[in-house]
Amino acid sequence: MDTTSRAGERDAASEERTPADRRVVEGYLRATFPWYGLDQAFTGPRWLMQVGTSADGTVQHGSTGHGDQPSIKVEDGLEKERFAAVVTVAASPVRRSGDGTGVLDATSVSSAAWLAGSGLIAYTWPAQMDYSLRDDWVAQQTETAFELADDLGGEDWATLSLPVDGVPMPFHYRESEYGWILAGTTGAGVHLGAYGRGISAYGLGFAALPDLSRYCG
Description:
Elements: H1 3-14, H2 19-29, E1 36-38, E2 46-53, E3 59-67, H3 77-80, E4 83-90, E5 95-96, E6 103-104, H4 109-122, H5 134-149, E7 158-164, E8 167-176, E9 179-185, E10 190-197, E11 206-208
Antiparallel strand pairs: 1-11, 2-3, 3-4, 4-10, 5-6, 7-8, 8-9, 9-10
């Protein structure tokens, strides 16, 4: 994405949007790395989710959504939702923060796995659980997701080959009762994570996004 295309994309994406919408889009446009989403084989709805930044405002990661916009539901709501979220994480070594006040951790495939795991948890609701206990459940599951992401070679993970920009790439993959999670890398300086439910991970393909127009409709 060159400067000219980003400028044009910025103008188009800013038209007829609420201040909140514009802030979301602006966050994506500040990134210095390419964003990824599902490839052209996916023909359903697409939308922007959110970006993550460092203390100095540098965009480090973000997610693009595909299919139904997920929500926390009880009973049979989980089975009815069909969505997949793609997490793009800028690949970077340990480095000083932009404001010189500290050190930023390196990012890796484990970073993408952790973000995917915690993302799925955010849209999960065990139907049998009392609402008052959900915060404790989320904290416990988030810690478990971190531990699993730190052990991608463990028995909880399988290997899945999926196309990235048309080239088969290996991904770490696991399923849970709430959905699936996968994580891998690209040749474009980013790591990829993904999570979802109702849409099979086995048929997915990923591609760099030439612009955000399909996610801003």
